[in-house]
Amino acid sequence: MQLYTDGFCRGNPGPGGWAAILVYEGTEREFYGSEKQTTNSRMELRAVIEGLRRLKQPCRVSVECDSRYVVSAFNERWLEEWQANGWRRTNGRPVLNQDLWRQLLDEHAKHDVHRWTWARGHDGSAHTERCRRLALDGSRHASKP
Predict the structure, then answer these.
(1) Superfamily of domain 2-143 in the CATH hierarchy
(2) What do you get for the CA distance between the two ends of the chain, in Å?
């Protein structure tokens, strides 16, 4: 299973959108959503959370997103450090977006996420480009009165 994600925010904070595409054996499922007042980081996190939530049973998953924030938290073991430090960063300040990080850890625990890959934004990949367009659509929806 492959999960592609993206998040977008018009302003930071501002109206935002998230998108996820699940790909398995040639079948694709797309999801997207929005929030009226949020940040780009929150939308990046929400995209991965919502993508993993859509899996109906435990799966072996590779995640690809353009957020170094999300990918590095797993690949560079930031999450382990934050939890060990009581959800504080090395400078002693609280970790931002703890609510979403905790949700992501809950979803992550249900699956075998074996690879986190950072994808350069606008890299020409059909899935990452599609995620970007869906996240933009979500942010446009959130901007409407």
Answers:
(1) Ribonuclease H-like superfamily/Ribonuclease H (3.30.420.10)
(2) 37
